């Protein structure tokens, strides 16, 4: 089981440079094995070009290394905080992708402006508040997870599968590692097109609520009709 | 005949990622066999990497599947509305390409600013009005086709071979599937350069009417002299 | 001789998609054989993917086809006007590259803002005036050449190796076809960085004259010391 | 020793086009052998496609060629000035990369807006003052080095591993040639995202000082915990 998950996490990590989301080692993907209460995550600061499946690190829910020869990603505590809070989340990704990071630096949510956004995110992609000095100075990565949770509030995390952390960058998640990367790609793409749209027309309106409902639900609602049924696939 | 059309539609769909117009499965191309009153279209939500010619779906003019193992694109009703209204249209493409979608989100037509535009589009590329709540809540995809038709009005659809649907994205068409994709590429390119041009000089003027006439007609008018005659090709 | 020139013109044309300057067939390169008073130019509307050396068209200085099975580029008359006026020019290129075309649509010269520009262009890259209705309606391509000449005035065309034609796009040239493409790449790159620079700081200053002199002359002046001497190469 | 350094400098130079930092020959990397007081640098104006390890040029600290068949980069005197002043610097790179050059042309520092920046640069990436006429007209490249040194003042050059030279472009450095290129890639990336961020929100705030401290120190401080320890690597 863990072997299969290591393979999935490795592949999801390798998808990051393939989708243009990372420069050097600036990104990491993890996934949870909720039966064993273990998380598989990218090792810290290892280059994508030379990384192998067996380099993935397995940690327990407190971040102790169970398996692996490397230190886990320095952002491990952020991932674990989210897994502990949200049982719906199966995979998490963090990158410094250009456009989503620009919105994080701008300190603004990535606004819901169109159906591209509404196909995956129900409402704006929020931007967290600034961490305080004491939140940064001790347990920084854990506090990053906490401020994401505070920002999400009571929403279903699979309906808002990502946020931008103020002055830092995007975190995205999904039902598994592959889905998390998918949502990170969507976030980068809408971050790009929203910037251009706002530059073209600074007085544009957010997406009509009923259009957002329609698109989100035709993909994720009970009567979803986008794509193929499991039988057809 | 349908076999040849399937091949064309398949190839036109595969051209979308090649031209950078799609992320994941966010695009679809169709073509009509007007003798048989049948339309060949991409299956819904199938990845480009694994899609095969035989996965193309054949539907009748009411959208019933005639041939194929998959559900047709969720946008099929939009395509069919356009084919029913405009006998000149042989192929249709829908994408969420970055820059054209940004104009759709901005709620503005892509303005005719230069000869790149005028070589393919006679006048601005219009942006539709917003769909109403009831138009979205029932027969959404059909109503998307209807609002495109309402926007085009009485123009020759091959002289305005595309529009942007408000808060959604671009639809383009042409005399066949290949031509439709060609026009979608042009739309994305002019959407990009028009944004940059408006950013450089917010008070720029639209293209002079006589220059637009010249460029459109040297490619599409009765005395066209761009390219090769059929004999030379 | 013409065979060698055909090869050079073919290769220079093939460099256009390689440098990201063209979409589809939107570009053409020519070169002159000044001893024979003949110009080799790309055929009109032929795809780069299938184009061969032998498809290059040879025309005389009035545009009559001397050799070749295709029609020459529809812009041939523009190229010939420039060759007739400027004996220093050995090659010419026309594209619709994104950023240079955006400046053409904005109706503004590409300003000399830095040393990247000054290494190749001495002063702003001018934008032509609009062609009049009658200049467009008859002998359009010839008049495009004339308005470029009018814009250059008395400057050395190798010191201003390109202009943008209003509402159309860039033309560049050089001592041969290869050099012309090189200058077209530079123009596109400075068009991009100048847009970004003006967006960052709308009140920036043009390059200091003495810095422009230094950079232009260390590459093109009598005491040039950039690169290798002929002996070293 | 010099052979190994030539190999490193060659590879670091070849990384420039791979990371999209250079067009044509517009970039150069050097490294110092501080025991022998020799610097290995790219030859001037040689194309990356055909450059070989043995084309690297070795110069002494006054710029006299010790080894090599080519002229050294025209920017050699700038590199040497920095090596003479800062014993901490092991490698230097100069490019005209698009976004960093745009900030140089805008005449503004690249502001510290987020953790991507703070992971490598402690504080803004400064922009030099303009060189005076006399600084440009004699010993231009040496004076470029001097104005970089004047701009850095008393900071640790490995804490501010790069600047933009006004109206020219970026210079970056590091503990060796590879590290210098790494910092040049970071500078280009933050130059890009900072432009977008400022365009999204012109009134954004610089990064909180304690967040900058945290990120810079978790990678570069005494208790650094990003990446692997030497033993693990």
Automatic annotation (TrEMBL), chains A, B, C, D:
Which residues are in the Class II aldolase/adducin N-terminal domain?
Answer: 7-195
Gene Ontology molecular function terms on file: aldehyde-lyase activity; L-ribulose-phosphate 4-epimerase activity; metal ion binding
Please give the InterPro entries that the UniProt record associates with this protein: Aldolase_class_II_sugar_metab, Aldolase_II/adducin_N, Aldolase_II/adducin_N_sf
Q: Which cofactor does it need?
A: Zn(2+)
Keywords of the record:
Carbohydrate metabolism, Isomerase, Metal-binding, Zinc
- Keyword Iron-sulfur set for record: no
**Reaction catalyzed:** L-ribulose 5-phosphate = D-xylulose 5-phosphate
Q: Does the keyword Metal-binding apply?
A: yes
Looking up CDD domains in the UniProt record yields: Aldolase_II
Give the record's GO CC terms.
cytosol
Query: In terms of domain of life, where is this protein from?
Result: Bacteria
Q: What is its EC number?
A: 5.1.3.4
Q: Which family does it belong to?
A: Belongs to the aldolase class II family. AraD/FucA subfamily.
Query: What name does this protein carry?
Result: L-ribulose-5-phosphate 4-epimerase
Q: What is the lineage of its organism?
A: Bacteria, Pseudomonadati, Pseudomonadota, Gammaproteobacteria, Enterobacterales
């Amino acid at each position: 089981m863990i072997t299969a998950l290591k393979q999935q996490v490795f592949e999801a990590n390798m998808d990051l440079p393939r989708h243009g989301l990372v420069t050097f080692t600036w990104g990491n993907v993890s996934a949870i094995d909720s039966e064993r209460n273990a998380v598989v995550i990218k090792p810290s600061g290892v280059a994508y070009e030379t990384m192998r499946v067996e380099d993935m690190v397995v940690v327990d829910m407190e971040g102790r290394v169970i398996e692996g020869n490397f230190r886990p990603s320095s952002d491990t505590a952020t991932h674990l905080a989210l897994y502990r809070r949200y049982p719906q989340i199966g995979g998490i990704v963090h990158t410094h992708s250009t456009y989503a990071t620009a919105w994080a630096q701008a300190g603004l949510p990535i606004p819901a402006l169109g159906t591209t956004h509404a196909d995956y995110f129900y409402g704006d992609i929020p931007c967290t508040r600034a961490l305080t000095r004491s939140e940064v100075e001790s347990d920084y990565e854990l506090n990053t997870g906490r401020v994401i949770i505070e920002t999400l509030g009571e929403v279903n995390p699979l309906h808002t599968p990502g946020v931008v952390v103020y002055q830092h960058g995007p975190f995205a998640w999904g039902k598994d590692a592959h889905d998390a990367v998918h949502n990170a790609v969507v976030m980068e793409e809408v971050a790009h097109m929203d910037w251009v749209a706002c530059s073209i027309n600074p007085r544009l309106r957010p997406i009509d609520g009923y259009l957002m409902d329609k698109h989100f639900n035709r993909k994720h609602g009970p009567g979803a009709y986008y794509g193929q049924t499991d039988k057809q696939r």
